[in-house]
Structures are given as C-alpha cells and as structure tokens.
Amino acid sequence: MSRIDIGEVRHFLTILKQANAEARVWLLQLKQTVERYVQDDSLSGKAVEASKSYFEASYPPLIETILQAFDTSEALLAQYIQAFHSQVDPSPNARIDAVLLGQAMEKVKSIRRKQEALQQSLSGSTAGIYEGRAQTLRLDFIEAVEQEKILEKYLQFEQSHTHFFEPLIELVQAAKRAVDVLHQQVHFNEETGTYTVAKTFAPAMKSLQDSLQKARGIDPKLDEQLEDYEILAVVYKDNTGKDAVMWVLEKDGVRVQNMKLQKYIEQTGRYQDAEKYTIITLADLDKKSPKRGKRVPTI
C-alpha cells in the first residue's frame, strides 16, 4: 500500500494550474505570431511559402494539443481529489499510509482483547466498579473501528486508482517537453525570412499526443470495435439540474449491452471525435422505443 497525503496532491494541482496558466499565455502569443507570419505579404519566395504552409498546417493543431493536455491533466487530478474525498475521507489534509493501517488494525485487536479480559473478570459485585473502564474501552473501540473503516475504504480506492499517477505524470512531463521545444528550438532565419524547426520537434509532439491518449484511457483496439456500433450521447439533467450524458450503444437500431465497450465509452466518450457519436435527448431516445422494445442483446 502506498502513502497518500491529499494535501500534497492538492498543492501539486495548484502548482500545475499556475504553470499551465503561464504557458497558455505564451502559447496564445506564439499562435498570434505564427498567424502574422503566415499573413505577412512582405515575405515571398518558395522557401518562405513552404515555411508558411508548414506553420499554417501544423501549429494550430499542435498548440491545441498542448492546451488539451493542460486541461486534461488538471481535470484528471481534480477528479482524483474529488473521488478521494467522496469515497475515503472528506478531510482536507487526510494522510494515509501502510503504517497507519497496521496501527489501526492492531489497536482494534488490542481493544477487543482488553474488552474480553475485562468481561471475564467481571462479577455481579464488581460490574459497577469497572463500568467506567468498560465505557472507555467502548469509546476507544468505536474510534479505532472508524479509523479502520477509513483505511479500508482507502484500500478499495487505491485498487481502483492503481495506475492513475503514472500516465498523469507522463502527460505533464510530455506537455512540458513540447512547450520547451517550441520555446527553444523554433528559430527565425533572418537571411531567408523563414522559421526553422529542430529535428527533436516532431518526436516531442508525437510523445505528447501518445501521452495524452494514454492519460485519457484511449485504446485504439477498443476504438476499432466501437466502429461496429452507433454511439448515442444522451443529454439529460441530473438530480442537481446540471447537464449530464448517458452513453448508449446500438446496433441495427437496437440497444446492445457490451459491458467492456460500455465501460470504455463512459470513460472516454468526452474525448472521442464528435463525428463518432450522435447527440440526442432523452425524449429522442424515448421515440426510439419501438426498436428499443426488442430484446437487448448481451455481448
């Protein structure tokens, strides 16, 4: 079992947001610089035109990918903190590790032994004398059990988040490398009037795109399997009045229960290309009821 200090995680999110905010300002300025360069009619020649075409085609999507990486890393970390508070401990500075878990379990066992020993030593004439001691043990036991419950909840939470931080950190580092490459290795050649890019530029961007897909949980093989289905993003209001989305898989107009793909689309639906799914309302879904009334196939 690993150690977690949720206060440290929250601090990391704060630092990450600050760094991303500074980088966003520079990236938007860079985007404007590229736009001015592309639109500058005072620069001409085949080399210039080729350079302009490259930057016009490459930079907007590259900058957008970096910005998406910023948004994704912040959102994932915020979701982790929220999940910890809702599933484990709402305390803002909760700290849990293997030592605490062992101490809590041993404390419960120790109190149980003391309670059993006290119970065996009691007789009708001595029960009143030891009632205060028994009450203290009961209160200690309740407190220890509550602590043990929190730690047990964390064990379950940790199991469901075993591989959370590895792709997140990888994404944060890949985004930083991409920004560094843009900042340090894209140069303007005054003699030719063109921008040049170092050879490490393309690998850095490829690494960022791969890290972004990994952090989002995108699996090319599962994406390919989704192509056999119609994906519906059913928009509705949740119990708080906020917009929410329910993902539905259909084949030949009939809803299909594919547990693996259903879990996958619920996790990655927000990141899928918009052309891969159709947005409908609950009312629209109800209109499909004649077909949906058929037996739902399970895969």
Task: Give a quick precis of the structure.
It holds the Pfam family LXG. The protein is α+β, with helices and mostly antiparallel strands and 299 residues long.
Q: How many strands in all? A: 8
Please give the share of residues in helix.
55-70%
Mean of all residue-level pLDDT scores: 78
Looking at the structure, what is the overall shape? globular
SSE string, helices as H and strands as E? EHHEHHHEEHHEEEHEHH
Radius of gyration: 29 Å
The main β sheet shows up as: 4 strands, mixed
The multimeric state of the shown protein is: single chain
Please count the helical segments: 10
Reading side by side through the largest sheet, how are the strands ordered?
7-6-5-8
